[in-house]
Amino acid sequence: MVQRVCVIGGGSSGLTSIKSCLEEGLEPTCFESSDDIGGLWRFKENPEADRASIYSSVIINTSKEMMCFSDFPIPANFPNYMHNSLIMDYFRMYAEHFKLTKHIRFRTKVLQVNPRSDFSQSGQWDVDIENEKGETERHIFDAVMICIGHHCHPNLPLHDFPGIDTFDGQYFHSRDYKTAEDWRGKRVVVVGIGNSGGDIAVELSRVTKQVQ
Fold it and tell me: 22 with 3: CB under 8 angstroms?
């Protein structure tokens, strides 16, 4: 009997997991809570709860030669460092080429995953989901692959900033930043000099009154 595999999430890891399962003769079913593939790399103006979110100008900081899937090269006419929209184009080409989308159930939320009562013998899992109609379903799988990423919940340690409760301006995590135009002519402080902090500081410097 063909083993059934539950894949949670339809981003880059979820897509490759579906493909790998198919190559091994397994039967994958991917549950994706949104209405599209792409995960982190799908730009949206308004961040969604419990979902990664990027700003509109994001360009990947890894060359296409290093980031592409080994069995599906990125098109030669794509730039070495791709804008997020091109990464989404690449994912769509990958999913279409390997016929992955038909194995994905969109607008379906995984509620819980539990080992079955006979797990010690069967090794199977109960997976409870909420379908796009809001109805609850339970499915049995032989394996579960969790591919939900790790940028879903912003870290905003406000306790480290004494006086923030009396600050009259606006403060937020980079997850909620979308475009520099919203801050034209304003004075801005960027806390953190990682990839996002560096990107945003440079972008803001072109339109704001002052960036620190």
Answer: no
3-state secondary structure labels for all residues of the chain? CCCEEEEECCCHHHHHHHHHHHHCCCEEEEECCCCCCCHHHCCCCCCCCCCCCCCCCCECCCCHHHHCECCECCCCCCCCCCEHHHHHHHHHHHHHHCCCHHHEECCCEEEEEEECCCHHHHCCEEEEEECCCCCEEEEEECEEEECCCCCCCCCCCHHHCCCHHHCCCCCCCHHHCCCHHHHCCCEECCCCCCHHHHHHHHHHHCCCCEEC
Work out the number of other CB atoms within 10 angstroms of the CB of residue 27: 14
The pLDDT-based confidence of 21 (bands split at 50, 70, 90) is very high
Residue 53 tokens, joined? 């979110």
pLDDT band with cut points at 50, 70 and 90 for residue 98: very high
pLDDT tens digits, 72-92: 999 999 999 999 999 999 999
Chain centroid to CA 134: how far?
23
Gyration radius (Cα) of the chain, Å? 21
Please provide the average confidence, as pLDDT, over all residues in the chain.
93
Q: Which two tokens stand for residue 9?
A: 């999430």
pTM summary value: 0.87
